[in-house]
Amino acid sequence: MRITGILLLLFSFALVINGCSKEKDEAKNLEQIYAEKGIPVKVQTVQPAPFQKASYYNAILRGFRESSVFAALGDRIDKIYVKVGDYVQKDQVLLSFPTDNPAAQYYQAKVAFENARRTIERMKKLLKSGGISQQDFDNAQTQFEVARANWDAVKQAVKVKAPISGYVTKINVRETDNVDVKAELATITQTDRMKAEIWIAESEINEIHDGLPALARWNGFEIKGKVIQVNMAMDLKQRAFKAILQFDNPDNTIKSGVTAEIEIVTFDREKAIVVDQTSLLKEGGQHYVFVNNNGKAEKRPVKIGPQSGAKVLLLEGLKPGDQLIVEGQFLLKDGSKINIIG
Questions:
Q1: Domain presence at residue 299
Q2: Per-residue pLDDT tens for 235-247?
Q3: How many structural domains are present in the chain?
Q4: C-beta of residue 197 within 8 angstroms of C-beta of residue 214
Q5: Which residues of 155-177 are buried (b: 16+ CB within 10 A; e: fewer)?
Q6: Residue 284 within a domain
Q7: How far apart are the first and last CA of the chain?
Q8: Measured distance CA(180)–CA(162) in Å, rounded
Q9: What range(s) does the Multidrug resistance protein MdtA-like alpha-helical hairpin domain occupy (predicted)?
Q10: Contact between 222 and 252 (Cβ < 8 Å)
Q11: Whether the predicted model's global pTM rises above the 0.70 cut
Q12: 208 belongs to a structural domain
């Protein structure tokens, strides 16, 4: 039994040795094939191509100018003169409160203004004839200015006007509604231009600057714009940098308040040398590629630029017409014989 076990062990060992010998022979044969016919590779002729890199964000679009009006007194809404979607001019009356509201003192302010206006007209004549001093006239002028300011404030409180020209994008009240002081009544928006605020990560801040082109997409619509402001200091709460973008919206296709996808083009070149990331190799911190040089692999150092997806822009190292090795490069050394199979 013991002798039989030893014989089996020796036989197994012999099989292992024989297998290793065959593997070495096969490896040697593969090396010989590579040496004789060359390492099989595929090449691609380098040609200039467009290259663009973009960053993407989500942001709320709002009218570039937007202003809300608030109740200056608490009372019932007497009349609303506009509806959502109307275009209004600056200082156009939007809605009104009753003029008999005691808190407004509408008629008192009106009478005070009329009296002050008549007084100042009389004072002008007396000053011209020498009937009063300049000091008396200046005091009357001050009283007139105060009365006029009070009257203007009361009129604005009772007859609420549009602070800017634009579209009525929101009305929060109805006629006969009772509202409190400082209640938001309506919003006017200039929608021919839109703006968006985005937050830029620290890793991307050096790529975003004023003037970069941008696109905003929402619900199948797309409008063009640009970056108009990038903060130079990080917001400590957001741990990011705030940037403001402006977009043209001439047909008012995009509504204020919607969430849109924002695309900022950070790099754009019509003719560039671009390679797939898989074609790049790296050694000791230096990127390089292999190119075909009369049937031999030439190791070519390259300088890389921006990357977009799987594409990398090369700043130096390749030129149009070079035959870049795109498959089989991991088997190569500088000067290796190659066999181009595609």
A1: no
A2: 999 999 999 999 9
A3: 2
A4: no
A5: bebbbbbbeeebbbbbbebeeee
A6: no
A7: 61
A8: 19
A9: 103-159
A10: no
A11: no
A12: yes
In this structure, are residues 162 and 95 in contact, taking their beta carbons and an 8 Å threshold?
no
The residue segments making up the domain with residue 178 are: 72-182
Residues 212 and 195 in one domain: yes
pLDDT of 193 above 50: yes
For 114-161, what is each residue's pLDDT tens digit?
Answer: 888 898 888 888 888 888 889 988 888 898 888 888 878 788 888 999
Percent share of the chain, pLDDT over 90: 67
Domain final residue, candidates 151, 182, 213: 182
Q: Give per-residue pLDDT as tens, 248-264.
A: 998 888 989 999 999 99
Place of tokens 């003037």: 211
260 and 230 in a common domain: yes
CA distance 117 to 32: 111
Assign 3-state DSSP to the chain and report helix, strand, coil percentages, each to 5: 25, 45, 30
User: Token digits for 260?
Assistant: 């849109």
